[in-house]
Write a structure and sequence with these properties.
Radius of gyration: 20 Å
Shape: globular
Number of domains: 2
CATH class of the largest domain: Alpha Beta
Distance between the termini: 34 Å
Helix content: 10-25%
Oligomer: single chain
Strand content: 25-35%
Structural class: alpha+beta
Number of strands: 6
Strand order of the largest sheet: 1-2-5-6
Number of helices: 4
Amino acid sequence: MPLTAPAQSRQRLHSRRVTYEGFQRDDGLFDIEGRLTDVKDHDTTLLSGVRAAGDAIHDMSVRVTIDRDFTIREIEARTDRMPYPGGCDVIGPQYRALVGANLLNGFRKRLHDTMGHVRGCTHITEMLSSLPTAAVQTFAGLREREDEGSAKPFQLDRCHALETTSDTVQRYYPRWYRSAA
């Protein structure tokens, strides 16, 4: 269901788009690619020059290669459009420090400890923080049915709808349902 119509007339000023795509490679690994763009609907004067309406202020991409255990094997980060050329676009190689991290075990903490604040790019780090859920979605349907394995499905107890005491879990994952009483 879409949002309700705005109560007031308005003019859009800014658009941020973040997309993720997951790929299975021929060598058995997986690539998760993310892209972030920021675009203004009006001409914008930056310290580095004027950006015409519709031209990207930011255009950044990442490719993270993972194995079936969600461990990062390779990472590439690039910045093609930025407000500060010669500054923003040089940090990408530093993200290789995340090789060996596991997307499902402490990844966001390691990401922010390793690349947070001045150690990385705010936008690339923000984009990478959502990568674990994109990776999980990439694997959906490639593994045995999540309700038939011997281990508790990964997504249970990670959001309100899938709390093991919820009606949703009682309906769709009865084996893992736990009474709230």
